[in-house]
Amino acid sequence: MKSMWCWRCKMDLPMLDEDEWRRVEPLLSMDIERIKAYREHGASLEEAARMARLEGCTEYERITGFHEENPNAIWHHRVALYGPPCAYCGKPLRTPEARHCAVCGRNRAS
Fold it and tell me: Is the pTM of the predicted complex or chain greater than 0.85?
């Protein structure tokens, strides 16, 4: 687990390494299926998320100590999705292949 800037959440959050991700990903998939099953009976998204037993969210919290109720948010809390920190401003590049920093606009250092 490593704390990094999340581009979607606009804050530093615990990001999962690949070993942690392998433990959480199947549970997140089951969480999404449970929410879909609740929705088939007319429940709102909020009600379905509240009623479903969200094991992926529980495992993410167990690993990181951060409480997250939205399984969709955890899908992008994975270190491997981001590039290295910008040599100038320190924010992670948006992808491993990014050539410039979306925050400060500078080109990736060689």
Answer: no
pLDDT tens digits, one per residue of 4-58: 999 889 899 999 999 999 999 999 999 889 888 889 989 888 888 777 778 999 9
Of the candidates 37, 70, 43, which has an alpha carbon nearest to the alpha carbon of residue 56?
A: 70
Measure the CA angle with vertex 68, ends 8 and 66; round to 5°.
Answer: 100
Rounded to whole angstroms, the Cα distance separating 50 from 87 reads 41
Provide the token pair at 98: 């990014």
Residue 98 near residue 62, CB atoms below 8 Å: no
Whole-angstrom Cα distance, residue 63 to residue 1?
8
